[in-house]
Write a structure and sequence with these properties.
The complex is a heterodimer of chains A (about 110) and B (about 110). With about 110 residues, chain A is mostly beta strands. Chain A is built from no helices and eleven strands. In chain A, the strands form two sheets. In chain A, strands 2, 4, 5, 9, 10 and 11 form a six-stranded mixed sheet that branches. A five-stranded antiparallel sheet of chain A has the order 1-3-8-7-6, with no helix packed on it. The mean pLDDT of chain A is about 95. Chain B is mainly beta. In chain B, about 0% of the residues lie in helices and about 50% in strands. Chain B has strands at about 5, 10-15, 20-25, 30-35, 45-50, 55, 65, 75-80, 85-95, 105, 110. In chain B, strands 2, 4, 5, 6, 9, 10 and 11 form a seven-stranded mixed sheet that branches. In chain B, strands 1-3-8-7 form a four-stranded antiparallel sheet, with no helix packed on it. In chain B, a hairpin with a 5-residue loop joins strand 4 (about 30-35) and strand 5. The chains are: A mainly beta (about 110), B mainly beta (about 110). At the A-B interface, strand 4, strand 5 and strand 10 of A face strand 5 and strand 10 of B.
Chain lengths: ~110, ~110
């Protein structure tokens, strides 16, 4: 039962254009969402997060949008740079005390110079 | 500033052998975690700890054991290694358990043959 789904295993984008990575979830108890970025042979690193009380959170070139009714979130990277080429994991959890984080399967982004 | 350090980086085990994956963090984080990542899959939680002396099972604990005698260290023990334990193992830590971003180590790639 995959509660967090990233249906696109890979995505290619030209440098300077927008990258849009999508994530769907099924568990209505999830109310906090995070994106992690992973380079080969390294561990994931935290990128950006959003609480369910918001529908948008922005940090520099990275913006995460949350559509609670559709149980869908997306990560926008504008403009895309070659250094953004990595695997991006969507993750979700509840709130209140320790909450287990559920990860998606990841989307491999390639930014073409 | 080392963050989360995992050793070894790579290991090949024969079926039935045992080993300990080491993890240490220097951020004084209370929460520590072990995840495994199989090809094309998200990260699955094996065990976690909310503080020294306290551990609990995650999604996939069978075949593993952990201990947490200090805040810094969280070793993962594999007893009687099986081919199904071939995976990349990531240790992580967080300041709090409630939606604090995870800080990951660079992983241990384990092959059981």
């Amino acid at each position: 039962d995959q509660q967090v789904k990233q249906n696109s295993p890979s995505l290619s984008v030209q440098e300077g254009r927008i990258s849009i990575l999508n994530c769907d979830y099924t568990n209505s108890m999830f109310d906090y969402f995070l994106w992690y970025k992973k380079y080969p042979a390294e561990g994931p690193t935290f990128l950006i997060s959003i609480s369910s009380i918001k529908d948008k959170n922005e940090d520099g070139r990275f913006t995460v949008f949350l559509n609670k009714s559709a149980k869908h979130l997306s990560l926008h990277i504008v403009p895309s740079q070659p250094g953004d080429s990595a695997v991006y994991f969507c993750a979700a959890s509840g709130t209140g005390g320790y909450q287990k984080v559920t990860f998606g399967t990841g989307t491999k982004l390639q930014v073409i110079p | 500033n080392a963050g989360v350090t995992q050793t070894p980086k790579f290991r090949i085990l024969k079926i039935g052998q045992s080993m300990t994956l080491q993890c240490t963090q220097d951020m004084n984080h209370n929460y520590m975690y072990w995840y495994r990542q199989d090809p094309g899959m998200g990260l699955k939680l094996i065990y976690y700890s909310v503080g020294a002396g306290i551990t609990d099972k995650g999604e996939v604990p069978n075949g593993y054991n952990v201990s947490r005698s200090t805040t810094e260290d969280f070793p993962l023990r594999l007893e009687l290694a099986a081919p199904s334990q071939t995976s990349v193992y990531f240790c992580a830590s967080s300041y709090m358990g409630d939606n604090s971003p995870l800080h990951f180590g660079n992983g241990t790639r384990l092959t059981v043959t």
